[in-house]
Structures are given as structure tokens and as C-alpha cells.
Amino acid sequence: MMRKTNLKKVLSFLLCMALIAAMALFATGCSDKKTAETVDGTTVYADGDVVGEGAKQFTLVIADKDGNETRLEIHTDKDIVGEALLDNQVIAGEDSQYGLYVKTVNGITADFDTDGVYWAFYIDGEYAMTGVDATEITEGVTYSLRVE
């Protein structure tokens, strides 16, 4: 009688451990985490990705030289568009006498000195009169960076 009780306890324990291991493997296999690629100091995000964390949110549309678009949803606590994009490694560039000269966006480099093209900055479809590093975030506005 005592052996059957001990055997049942051991079998119950082993079954519970097997179920716990199966649940852990299932939860790990269902993870949404993606391994992002880094190119020229920027992270390459896919169309529709949600980037960053914070109370403020805006849409960024990135258009390459062929017109292919990538739309990102940016979340941040920063006040300036450029700060949010730099913080999330969406853009990279260098400081110039006119402000931040954006050279790489989402892994795509456009350097006027090398290629004769550059990253143009748009606010709601209109060519911006300020650079990304001088534009305050306004929720509901769509910002764009386009190779031209």
C-alpha cells in the first residue's frame, strides 16, 4: 500500500515537471522578439514595426531611392523628432554647421558627396523648413525621410 502511494507521488511529480518543461518550451517558441540587423550605425526595421517606448507617438515613413516605403510607429519620451530617431537608432549622421546631416536611415545610406542623393525631411507631405534635429514632435503628424 505504501509503495503504491509513493509510486503515485513520484509519477505525479514527474508528470508535473514534464508539463512545466513543455510550457516553458512553448512560451519560448512563441516569442515575438526579432533579431534586428544593424547597418551603418542604424537598426534595420521592417515595415509596420513599432519602435521604442514612451508617451509620445508618431509615424515615420522612409522612402528609398526606388520609392519603396517602410512605415514605422515611433514611441518616445523625447521632444524632438531627431532625438527620438537617434535614440532608437533609426537614423545616423554627423553634425554640421546647419545641424544634423542625416546620412543613414534604417540601414540605407544616402550621401550627397558620394552618390549625389540626400535624405529629404517632410512633415505631413510638405518639405520641412526645419531639420529633424530642430523639429518638435507633434502627435498625429506623419514625418517622412525620402532619398532625393
What do these coordinates show?
The protein has 148 residues and is an alpha+beta fold. It has two domains: 1-33; 37-147, Ferric Hydroxamate Uptake Protein, Chain A, domain 1 (Beta Complex), CATH 2.170.130. It has three helices and eleven strands; from the N terminus they run H-E-E-E-E-E-H-E-E-E-H-E-E-E. The strands form three sheets. The chain has a six-stranded mixed β-sheet. A three-stranded antiparallel β-sheet has the order 6-7-8, covered by helices on one side. Strands 1-2 form a two-stranded antiparallel ribbon. A hairpin with a 5-residue loop joins strand 4 and strand 5. It starts with a helix and ends with a strand. Residues 27-34 have low confidence and may be disordered.
In CATH terms, what is the architecture of the largest domain? Beta Complex
The average pLDDT value, as a whole number, equals 85
Largest sheet: 6 strands, mixed
Q: What is the number of helical segments per DSSP (H or I, 4+ residues)?
A: 3
CATH class label of the largest domain:
Mainly Beta
- Structural domains: how many: 2
Distance between the termini: 84 Å
Overall outline: elongated
Percent of residues in beta strands: 35-45%
Number of strands: 11
Flag low-confidence runs.
Answer: 27-34
Helix content: 25-40%
Give me the Rg, rounded: 24 Å
Strand order of the largest sheet: 3-5-4-11-9-10
CATH fold category name of the largest domain: Ferric Hydroxamate Uptake Protein, Chain A, domain 1
Order of helices and strands: HEEEEEHEEEHEEE
Structural category is alpha+beta
